[in-house]
Amino acid sequence: TQVVKDLLEENGKITGYLTGYSIYNKLGLTTQVSNIIQIGKNQIRPKFKRGHYIIAFVKQKNTITKENIPLLQVLDAIRYIKKIPDASIEACCKRFLAIIKNFTDKEINTLVRLALKYPPATRALLGALIEQLQPIGAAEPLFKSLNPITKYKLYGAAKALSTTEKWNIV
Prior knowledge:
- It contains eight helices and six strands.
- It is an alpha+beta fold.
- The radius of gyration is 16 Å and the shape is globular.
């Protein structure tokens, strides 16, 4: 965080947040530690080197606030689930269930709202995860946002989730 502090704030206002490999490690998805620091921002710029680190940027379409940063970090991890080093999709799904299980209803509703600006495969997997935990309909907006004939290739997700068929995850 100290290496990129100046890139996360402007005049005391939060403009970016840490995401990528450092967050996969913090969320318990991998034991790997990377020299690439990824930052989620509304405007992206080319990656560059700073000391030992490579600073890369990920486009974030949602407004970045202090409250929604942990939720955006989880969504980014779901979005890039196939790129998480040294971790299977099945193991990641189990870890995501453990993380989301501790969220309040308000946080889950915010997570769903934020996810609507993410790619369809991310929305499908998040929907399957939430439905596994709460079959009451919190994930309904995600389901309505998806094309019903598209299939999402996330091999191993079905081993951890019983809801993959409804969400067209293969």
